[in-house]
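Reopening this one. Same input as before:
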Amino acid sequence: MARGLTEEAPKLGTLFVAAQLVDIAFFTFVILGVEHMRIVPGITAMNPMDLYSMPFTHSLLASAWWALAMAGFLMLKRRNAVAALWAGIVVLSHWVLDLLVHRPDLTLLGTPPKLGLGLWNYPLIEMPLEIGITLLAFWFYMRRTRGPVGPPLILLFVMFVLQAINWFAPEPTAYSIAIPLSALFAYAVLIALASWVSSTRWHRREVGLAVPTMRR
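Same output, byte for byte:
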């Protein structure tokens, strides 16, 4: 929604990076052996991942540091405090949304107590909630921007396909490196598509002399 609120917000591809930065870091750290996960079938109704060690990505403190890093990078790159602030907010929002769905495996400072409301154990609540948030954000972005409708619809379709695979594909019974690698690949696909969408659309406040005639 951030890109729809103001034309000073980062482009959609950058916001997709911000939204998933914590998970991108986590799965990278898992591959490197810095953080750890295992597969425990039935640990939640929707997700067999036991995320038992992730102090550098999924504590509130760590998320705040990632948010500051993203904001600092955008500040240096764009010299725009508004863009930097929105990028940081989006990064930090990941922890807040995770708090709703995770079992108690999140922390405030990297050590217990562990937190999580566990909506992954309630598919009839979690699935409509996730779909609803996605559709609301899509509607808001489309309403506040201008450009061809095809690219955003393709992005939305791919997002739902990947989510359906996550929800309904057979669950792994043991950890393998294919799990973090497939997650990182999915993020890369979505970020690339979001960057493409951003190149075809512009904020409605930008419509005018600043927008080339061919794009009106």
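So the earlier flakiness isn't reproducible anymore. For the record, The chain has a mean pLDDT of 91.
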